[in-house]
Amino acid sequence: MRAFLFMVALLFSVSSFSAVRCDLTSATQFADVGELSLAYQSVGRARDPALLLVMGLGGQLIHWPDEVVQSLCEQGFRVIRFDNRDVGLSRWHQPMAPVNLTIQALRYRIGISVSAPYSLTDMARDSLGLMDALGIERFHVLGASMGGMIAQHLADLAPQRVQSLTLIMSSSGAAGLPAPSPKLLALLGRREAPNRAVALEQQADLLAALGSPEVKDDRQQLLHEAQVSYDRAFNPQGVERQIAAILAEPSRVELLNRLRVPTLVVHGTADPLLPVMHGVHLAAHIRGSQLKLIPGLAHRFQAAFKKPLLAAVLPYLIAHRRDTHIAQL
């Protein structure tokens, strides 16, 4: 009986300590990185292996599902999520000029070079600058969508610092890959809204279009998600500058061919924005990479796919964590 009570007490203390260690309510902090003040949150112990999460177009750090961050932290990672330049609470030290996205999109369609105020490589340097500010030399990287594109540049800029690379619903940017539907592109292009109510409806429409056909979305839940995002930060001009950076980006095939960082590519079979061949092509050009396709996954972190995503990502990250000791509780 005494041994049983000891085990119960031990399990309870482990659970309680894990909850304290992986505190998702830890405050948002700020790091000065070049022209920017980047907003970030660090979840987990400073001595644990660092995992940097890089979000996609217009996404804020809150768009990484808390359950995913919690699970990653409980596996012994220090999880760092942040707002990219031009979104969320991250701020420029000096105001940025707006971009005429209509003209740049037209240039892109007719094959003329696109002008953008910054590049995805610049955004990768932001990530490196954040890790420098935190005093983290080596780290793992997980990028989603545009964040996966930024992560590719990050691994190319500092291969000696990136211990592993995980790319979710991303692309190589090569010509000839399947394009999104015109309807979805039209929804992505709607950035002007006369008021908050219209902005929320537009964002809910976009979220629905990015979701899986296998999942029936609750409209009120989509509006709630849009509201939380809008009320934290709303910067349509910043998102336009991010879109311009994507349009100005050349194919990354040459970059991918020289990468030697351990890489996992995860893609959904129902992705309407970057159809599944984007993931297949991406993995095909990274030597030694692994590819995991998730049936039904689209271009959102929907609740129905959180478990399949974690099942794809966690074993890979744990295998490459390179811990030299058993994680201390």
TrEMBL record:
Domain AB hydrolase-1 span(s) in chain numbering: 49-299
Entry-linked Pfam families: Abhydrolase_1 (PF00561)
InterPro entries, alphabetized: AB_hydrolase (IPR050471), AB_hydrolase_1 (IPR000073), AB_hydrolase_fold (IPR029058)
Entry GO MF terms: triacylglycerol lipase activity
SUPFAM superfamilies from the UniProt entry: alpha/beta-Hydrolases
Signal peptide: 1-18
Name of the protein in its database record: Pimeloyl-ACP methyl ester carboxylesterase
Keywords recorded for this protein, A-Z: Signal
Coiled coil: none
Keyword Transmembrane belongs to the record: no
